[in-house]
TrEMBL record:
Transmembrane segments: none annotated. GO terms for molecular function: glutamate dehydrogenase (NAD+) activity; L-aspartate:2-oxoglutarate aminotransferase activity. Residues 40-161 form the NAD-glutamate dehydrogenase catalytic domain. Pfam families: Bac_GDH_CD (PF05088), GDH_C (PF21074). This is NAD-specific glutamate dehydrogenase. The lineage of its organism: Bacteria, Bacillati, Actinomycetota, Actinomycetes, Pseudonocardiales. Residues 209-489 form the NAD-specific glutamate dehydrogenase C-terminal domain.
């Protein structure tokens, strides 16, 4: 327990012997009755308030005590605007009403919801194990289960932070998700304390850069997971042999050898695998990732999940997620969040690539085997071709305390996004390193790398501007692929001269086409025109 912390029980009275606690409770008498102690503690100016008991102790200032539906605690309940703790953790159920959580969060408090700060992993494991043998095995791996439960909660909290950081930008998308969940999943806005259309419009027009509050995003995250689980359960995805490893990784390491041979035949295999996948997907790429893909491609969520899983395993992204997550306080929170955004953007580009260039359903195992081997050869080639950009980003990240190797891998994600195209162009008929060199030489020579940087810098203050940026990036990658393919088909080995020459070639590139200067008022509009003036999408 931290210095100054004192555990309290619900006895008749307490003795506060530590000066810190006496000061926190504003100098109350030495013996304080239990109800007054609770009332004072709920309003204490502390760093963290942790509720681990049963009862609803905080309501919104707009609510009455009967609306909190917990008459036993009416005498000690406080309003959300009276809570002065910087962070609230809900280990018990409904310590705050949902409206109180939202009010507290909008006022600057940090909290999730009770269902985010808990986990159902232990319950699932008890179901997984036969009742006759579960007590002994579970007791033997209780520390492993506890670690997994804490990891579940941390991952959920992490993705909430990433989504919250861009909540104003995603307000339109979140509003669309609410409508979609209403239509498809019978979401009740009133019951879930989510904004109605009038309130959404008011928050959008507030001019304060407000999106959904963190507890509201938590509700959407829960519905997104449930929706993902239902769609996956109704699809053949859980029956994919490639995903057998996902099921085994859900089991504590101490039980894997014992349960491994029987997991494939377990009667709850599909249900547990569906839960594992929906948690993994939502915890890594957020609430709206697959709805955006469906919106931009028209492909079903299960097919998009297959594409995402192929990208995840080709590039070993789970290891990268874990490395960034393990930084904890080693770098500023905003830097970690931006690295998570980099990974999400990379996932989106890679998933879109498969949805545009492969007919669904994507063969996960086949694509992973085909691409992973060749992309390992490219990892040192692509960043070297765009060394200046990679080195600049690497230096920026290391300056914030990110380890050099990890900083370099995150910085290389931009150039590495082209690797799927490079491998596809090579098509086992050309040296993949040579194709990468030609691709990069054309990229730099024609100023495509510069154009990509300008697209990244475009404002994305609404859902539609974000979709426009996605469309622009996708069109740019398509043009790069076409140019490289045409150059190789027409000039063959002579492209090596282009790839290795450092001579300046007088070619008019995108930088020469735009009359407004970068950063000027007209530049963003000029680049944005490309999203409607550019060529059509490549056929699948």
């Amino acid at each position: 327990m931290a210095a100054g912390g004192v555990p309290l029980s619900v006895e008749a009275g307490f003795t506060f012997s530590r000066p810190y606690v006496e000061a926190t409770l504003a100098g109350r008498p030495e013996f304080v009755r239990a109800l007054l102690a609770y009332f004072a503690l709920l309003r204490a100016p502390v760093d963290v308030l942790c509720n681990g008991g049963v009862g609803t102790f905080v309501k919104a200032s707009s609510q009455t005590h009967p609306e909190a539906a917990d008459p036993a605690n009416d005498a000690i309940r406080v309003d959300a605007d009276q809570v002065r703790a910087r962070v609230v953790v809900e280990g018990g159920d409904l310590g705050f009403t949902q409206r109180a959580r939202v009010e507290y969060a909008l006022a600057g408090g940090r909290m999730n919801t009770d269902f985010i700060d808990t986990s159902d992993r232990e319950v699932n494991l008890k179901i997984l194990l036969d009742a006759a043998i579960r007590d002994g095995p579970l007791a033997a791996v209780q520390d492993e289960v506890a670690t997994a439960v804490l990891t579940d909660s941390r991952l959920q909290s992490r993705v909430l932070g990433v989504v919250e950081s861009d909540a104003p930008v995603f307000l339109d998308q979140h509003a669309q998700s609410i409508r979609s969940f209403e239509q498809r999943d019978n979401l009740d806005r009133e019951l879930e304390c989510l904004l109605d259309e009038e309130a959404l419009a008011a928050r959008r027009k507030a001019g304060l850069g407000l999106g959904l509050a963190r507890p509201e995003i938590a509700v959407l995250l829960a519905h997104a997971k449930n929706s993902l689980a239902r769609e996956l359960s109704d699809s053949p995805v859980p029956d994919e042999p490639y995903l057998a490893g996902e099921l085994l990784r859900y089991v504590p390491p101490g039980l894997r050898q014992r349960l491994g041979p029987t997991m494939a035949r377990h009667p709850l295999r599909r249900q547990i695998l569906t839960t594992v996948l929906s948690n993994d997907l939502a915890d890594h790429v957020g609430t709206g990732f697959f709805s955006r893909l469906e919106e931009t491609t028209g492909v079903s969520t299960p097919d998009a999940v297959r594409a995402y899983l192929a990208v995840r395993d080709i590039f070993g992204l789970n290891a990268l997620w874990s490395e960034v997550d393990s930084l904890a306080t080693a770098c500023p929170p905003g830097v970690r969040t931006e690295m998570f955004h980099d990974l999400q953007r990379f996932c989106q580009l890679g998933t879109l690539w498969f949805l545009r260039n492969r007919r669904p359903p994507v063969d996960i195992a086949g694509e992973v085997e085909h691409f992973r081997r060749q992309i390992r050869q490219l990892a040192p080639v692509l960043p070297a071709a765009l060394a200046e950009m990679v080195q600049r980003r690497t230096a920026e990240l290391t300056g914030y305390g990110v380890p050099g190797v990890l900083a370099g891998r995150i910085a290389a994600l931009g150039p590495l996004a082209a690797s799927l195209d490079v491998v596809e162009i090579a098509a086992d008929r050309r040296d993949v390193g040579f194709v990468a060199a030609v691709y990069s030489a054309l990229d730099v020579g024609l100023g495509m790398d510069w154009l990509q940087e300008q697209i990244v810098e475009l404002p994305s203050e609404s859902h539609w501007e974000l979709l426009a940026k996605i469309s622009l990036r996708e069109d740019l990658f398509a043009q790069r692929r076409r140019l490289t393919g045409v150059a190789l088909a027409r000039y063959g080995w002579r492209c090596r001269i282009c790839a290795t020459s450092r001579r300046s070639v007088p070619i008019r590139g995108p930088r020469d086409v735009f009359s407004p200067e970068p950063g000027s008022a007209g530049f963003g509009a000029a680049v944005a025109l490309m999203s409607v003036a550019g060529p059509g999408r490549p056929a699948r």
